[in-house]
Amino acid sequence: MVGRSHVGKKNRAKVQLAALSLVIVLLLALVVGTDVRLNQVGADVKVVKVGVIGSSDDQIWKAVQAELDRRGEHIRIELKPFQDAIYVNQATANREVDFNAAQHYAYLEDDVKTNHYQLAVLGNTYISPMNLYSQRYAKPSQFQDGDRVAIPNNATNMGRALKVLADAKLIGLRDPKATNPLPEDVVDNPKHLHIEQVDPAGILNLLPDYAGGVTNANFVVDAGRSVHDAIHEVPYDLQNPANKPYINIIVTTKDQRDNPTYAAVVRAYHSKPVADTIVRVYKGACLPAFKVS
Length: 293
Known about the structure:
By secondary structure, the protein is an alpha/beta fold. The protein folds into two domains: 115 residues, D-Maltodextrin-Binding Protein, domain 2, CATH 3.40.190; 100 residues, 3-Layer(aba) Sandwich (D-Maltodextrin-Binding Protein, domain 2), CATH 3.40.190.10. The protein contains eight helices and twelve strands.
């Protein structure tokens, strides 16, 4: 009896071990199968690298991603931030990013002319204000003789900043309608302002050492400030052709301008949820420069 019981126990143990092994095999098969399916879904997702300036537009691109997901597009946006548009266009031309959203028409035209990039516009994004800021004064008329004023050191934004100072009645320009006036085009400077060209990202940090500074809205938002802190705001009417050079755009290489994946991203960008996000993020200061699709 003892022998038979011992044999019975051994047989039961073998059966239990076999059953356990079968369960483990089935579980492994399930896990591997799930992993394969996940990999298959992942393989369908197209990653699009987008060059941007700073982090001020992060919420906008999150809204674009949400719209792509809602539309069932298997596209994932991956942002690559830069400090200056100079490097963004270079990275786009070198295919380090697929496209960028970091400049307006005037900047692109000047950069292409200078560096001979083969770049093309995919679509509009928004028009961003460039205003005059100061920690010393509440209005432009309070500027004193010989005050220093900081403006961006790149050609197109420098010209735009000079137009802001002209709009504030601080200087006069030879041709007020010129898109990119130069310092030598200043023909009237009644307060003998010292207008100095500096990195636009650091202009707000120069105040109040400088009496005033003109810079782009994205740098203001990145600094945790409101564009409405400006002591002089320039109104922008999208119907006015004179403002087209300052509409921000999405840019890629010429050979990719008909890329269907990029077109899907632009369509998602030109949606009402994204337009609403632009208005919310910039508190109405930036205007969507596209027709909602």
